[in-house]
């Protein structure tokens, strides 16, 4: 009986010590409560958010990619027919060739805004905003994921529009300065993506978002020199146009194709505009990040 009692006591002691050791190992594996498990840049979470946003608009690509391309191509057809095929030149090229880069850039910017402005707004209205706020993503990672997906959609729309215009007989698409095409295309898409993200935070229903699209984005796009050169305007409206950031995006993008634009015909002049839009995007990015950080109209 004594031996049995000794054996039982020894077993209990071993079991207790093993349990204590296991608890100590658990404490070493998991940080204290309140201390984040993921530190640094959450690459997996960011990639997951990005792919979620991309797959969202690719599921309805007929509406989000091909429909905007067809609509933009109709602008080209209508204005080309109205101006007369091959009878008018602007900046030394046929009207269709002049207007094509502006239409590509306009389609990219408008669809970049449409994509980013939907993400948070849909979540707020449908009550699924928690799916974006709860995951272990910082405000910067949340912003980068949504903006990157919007830029991806913009590039896809731009590629679809460019391909359609390449087949149009009156359009000749050249790459006089590829760096300008890439730079202004990405900067314009990023600018509208961040504007859309800010709009989705402010909006409380789809009507608010539509108001921003109809009364801010669309007028700034159409009055940015897409279909004309600002030299044809009066001095007052030329000055107003030069305060329109869309003007520099579209003119710089056009410079990449034609080697000429309203900004100027030299790399030096366009480089100044390129630097200006970069600074503007830095400001917009800072504002967007601060609003996300504060939880403005996102957290109650």
From TrEMBL:
Tell me the segments the record calls region Disordered: 1-33
Q: Which InterPro entries match?
A: ABC-2_transport_permease, ABC2_TM, ABC2_TM_bact-type, ABC_2_transport
Q: Which GO terms describe its cellular component?
A: ATP-binding cassette (ABC) transporter complex
Q: Which UniProt keywords apply?
A: Cell membrane, Membrane, Transmembrane, Transmembrane helix, Transport
Compositional bias of kind Polar residues? 1-19
Q: Which residues form the ABC transmembrane type-2 domain?
A: 59-295
Question: Is the Transmembrane helix keyword given for this protein?
Answer: yes
Coarse class of the protein's main subcellular location: membrane
One term of GO molecular function: ABC-type transporter activity
Compartments (UniProt record): Cell inner membrane; Membrane
As for membrane topology, the entry says:
Multi-pass membrane protein
Spans traversing the lipid bilayer: 65-83, 142-168, 180-203, 209-230, 271-292
**Can the keyword Nucleotidyltransferase be found in this entry's annotation?**
no
What the entry lists under PROSITE patterns is as follows:
ABC_TM2
Q: Which family does it belong to?
A: Belongs to the ABC-2 integral membrane protein family.
From the Swiss-Prot or TrEMBL record, give the protein name. Transport permease protein
The scientific name of the source species is Altericroceibacterium indicum
